[in-house]
Write a structure and sequence with these properties.
The chain has 176 residues and is α+β, with helices and mostly antiparallel strands. The chain folds into two domains: 3-10 and 97-168, PH-domain like, CATH 2.30.29; 26-94. The chain has five helices and seven strands. A four-stranded antiparallel sheet has the order 1-2-3-4, covered by helices on one side. It has a three-stranded antiparallel sheet with strand order 5-6-7, covered by helices on one side.
Length: 176
């Protein structure tokens, strides 16, 4: 029994894929790495609140300019991060096959330009299912093969799960 699914990922699928690979300690680490900037921001907020509560009208122009600079830096960081992410997504999708074919010998990737790749079942150690994609775990914690599910009907999803159970066993879902 063979089944073919789309290989390229949509933005919503990439967002879900990042949850599969991101450590549960990701956000605490981000906050701890940025503690100096957060402390400066808290001091600035505290100073602004003290000035407002005390009714002190001196140096409002300078304080306002500092807040404008902080807002500008935040806007720049966010837009720069989004541009970088969009470039990375485009590069990722260029490297992915157009189609994934699940068969008795494993998963084959095929592209419209004729390039093919093969991943035998023995190189896969398990699978997890999310709302919009499947993550096939590579043996030896080498990563994942992501399989988009958004285009599949419920009957096709059931068929794909059956193929995966036959070759890889039950899902290792951790309900992300």
């Amino acid at each position: 029994m063979k089944m073919q699914v789309r290989g390229k990922l949509l933005p919503i699928e990439i967002k879900e894929a990042s949850r599969f690979v991101r450590s549960k300690w990701y956000w605490p680490r981000v906050v701890l790495r940025s503690w100096y900037g957060l402390m400066l921001l808290l001091v600035l907020a505290w100073g602004t609140i003290v000035k407002i509560v005390s009714g002190d009208r001196e140096h409002w122009l300078g304080l306002s300019l500092v807040w404008v600079a902080v807002a500008g830096i935040l806007v720049w960081v966010i837009s720069s991060t989004r541009r970088s992410r969009d470039r990375a997504i485009k590069a990722l999708n260029q490297g992915l096959p157009d189609w994934l074919v699940f068969g008795s010998d494993g998963v084959q990737g095929t592209s419209t330009d004729g390039v093919t790749s093969s991943r035998p079942w023995t190189t896969l150690s398990g699978w997890r299912e999310g709302a919009s994609l499947l993550a096939l775990s590579l043996s030896g914690k080498q990563g994942f093969v992501f399989v988009p599910l958004t285009d599949l009907l419920s009957e096709q999803r059931v068929e794909l799960r059956k193929i995966l159970r036959e070759h890889l066993g039950e899902s290792q879902n951790q309900h992300l």
